[in-house]
Write a structure and sequence with these properties.
nine-stranded mixed beta sheet; five-stranded antiparallel beta sheet; 13 helices
């Protein structure tokens, strides 16, 4: 099934069911089908056709999904763009990818007011929810060709984002829709849809005939209100947003409704502290920690029923996923042996656009090198240790940031922590710990605290693993994908 076929089918079977909603506008399946057809017709008259490249610079909204559906009906090459990129970076990508049309919203009009070729603002598109004109001559598609594709960008948490080419079939995983289901699930998506994993989740919701609720904001008060207002049964967010939501619930003495049955976290692994708080405040929920990459999509996941027995694991591989751990020479490693995580998936990317050498280095036969280090245990559970490029080499002694992070999180004063390697002329790398304190310890004597931490760490760790720098910060910075913004952290030292 494709998203276009499903929208059309649900428009007939459940025409008045809400397909997508935000705080300003909701679209039923019938409205979404008709609106996207009208817009596809408009784009055709503007000269767009199959294979044309269209860039989308928008925040989450109902109109975002309507735009995507219209472009799917043209079989355009859809290029969702991170709207946090600098103006010049957006323009560079627009030129580099030979984009025919930029679709955006008036919220960003100052960014594009001086462009030689003006963008199309979605607010100026006709919001007609019935079919217009003669539809028989429209060159619309329902099936993907082998060359049908999208281009996504990696999160850029450690450098410039790379464009990845993904077949559209890889964004429409095999889902068996239940057209007889009378009551849909309500899925609240907090993270931006311009990232592959989140647009895939949006597609999955529509493919199953459920209702997608999207948020422009990550403000915990707004997220809480949306959960209540829409009766969300599922929510996908990131660890930082979930931290803020739980803090809001604690401080306001509110409760999350029992109708919320599932919470999934993406972007980076949840801390043990966050897991404990989620289980305390959401005892009725299945809580899922999800691991995936832009290059291959979903890799593994683990829910709260397994956390006690598989502490700090990222879970078992998803269906149709095979994980191999390899050493530097490419040899497969046995259980419990640490190496690079390689993934075989039919949903993998085709290539990095314009980066043939990087593409060749990333593929290992049919597998994709993730750049993450870890191991599989005897039962097939995956454990992540850190990025391959971030292994700390202090004077020839190697260790992973996660080992030090886990030790630091045992201190009652520490709420969150991130450890990164800092370049050093003599030692190669020195470990730096960026620490967020629990609220009750915000006024702590920092010098005494740091000395006490180092002293206690020396009772269980060798000296080379003790952090050279400990920086107290108010909050760990993350990008819109929910991943740690390591470049921003490094600016605090380098």
């Amino acid at each position: 099934m494709t998203i276009i076929k499903n929208i059309k089918t649900y428009a007939k079977v459940h025409p008045n069911r809400v397909a997508v909603s935000d705080n300003d506008l909701f679209l039923t399946y019938s409205q979404l089908d008709n609106l996207s057809t009208n817009w596809a017709n408009f784009f055709i008259k503007q000269g767009l056709k199959k294979g044309c490249k269209v860039m989308i610079c928008m925040r989450n909204s109902s109109l975002f999904l309507a735009v995507v559906a219209a472009l799917e009906k043209l079989d355009a090459v859809i290029i969702p763009i991170n709207y946090q990129l600098l103006d010049k970076e957006v323009k560079e990508l627009y030129i580099k990818y030979e984009v025919q049309l930029l679709l955006t919203e008036e919220y960003f009009q100052d960014r594009f007011k001086d462009w030689e070729i003006p963008p199309q603002y979605v607010e100026n598109l006709d919001l007609t929810y019935s079919l217009k004109g003669n539809m028989e001559d429209l060159e619309l598609v329902e099936e993907y060709q082998n060359d049908s594709k999208m281009v996504f960008f990696t999160s850029g948490s450690t450098g410039k984002p790379k464009g990845i080419v993904v077949k559209k079939k890889s964004l429409n995983p095999t889902v068996l829709p239940d057209f007889l289901k009378e009551k849909p699930s309500i899925h609240l998506l907090v993270r931006p849809m311009f990232f592959r994993s989140h647009l895939t989740l949006a597609y999955n919701t529509i493919l199953q005939g459920d209702t997608l609720v999207v948020s422009k904001s990550d403000d915990p008060r707004i997220i809480y209100q949306m959960i209540i207002q829409h009766g969300a049964t599922q929510m996908t967010s990131g660890p930082s947003d979930l931290h803020d939501l739980i803090d809001f619930i604690e401080s306001s003495s509110k409760e999350l409704p029992s109708v919320l049955r599932e919470v999934m976290s993406t972007g980076r692994a949840m801390s043990e502290d966050l897991k404990k708080k989620l289980m305390l405040y959401l005892p009725h929920c299945v809580i899922i920690d999800f691991y995936g990459t832009s290059e291959v999509g979903a890799i593994s996941s683990i829910d709260n029923s397994e956390w006690k027995y598989k502490k700090r694991s990222s879970g078992k591989p998803e269906f149709f996923i095979d994980i191999k751990i390899i050493d530097e020479e490419g040899h497969s490693l046995a259980p419990l042996e640490v190496g690079e995580i390689c993934v075989l998936s039919k949903y993998r990317m085709e290539r990095y656009e314009f980066e043939a050498e990087t593409t060749a280095d990333t593929f290992f036969n049919e597998y994709i090198r993730t750049g993450d280090m870890g191991y599989l245990d005897e039962e097939g559970y995956l454990f992540l240790l850190g990025r391959k490029k971030e292994v700390i080499n202090r004077g020839g002694f190697y260790f992973y940031p996660s080992e030090l992070e886990n030790k630091l999180l045992e201190f009652k004063e520490i709420q969150q922590v991130a450890v990164l390697p800092i370049p050093h002329n003599k030692w190669g790398n020195l470990p730096a710990a960026f620490i967020v304190l629990e609220d009750t310890f915000k006024e702590i004597n920092e010098h005494a605290f740091k000395e006490n931490v180092k002293k206690k760490l020396l009772t269980s760790l060798p000296p080379y693993k003790i952090p050279e720098h400990m920086i107290i910060i108010n909050k760990l910075p993350v990008n819109l994908g929910g991943k740690l913004d390591k470049l921003k952290l490094l600016t605090l030292i380098i």
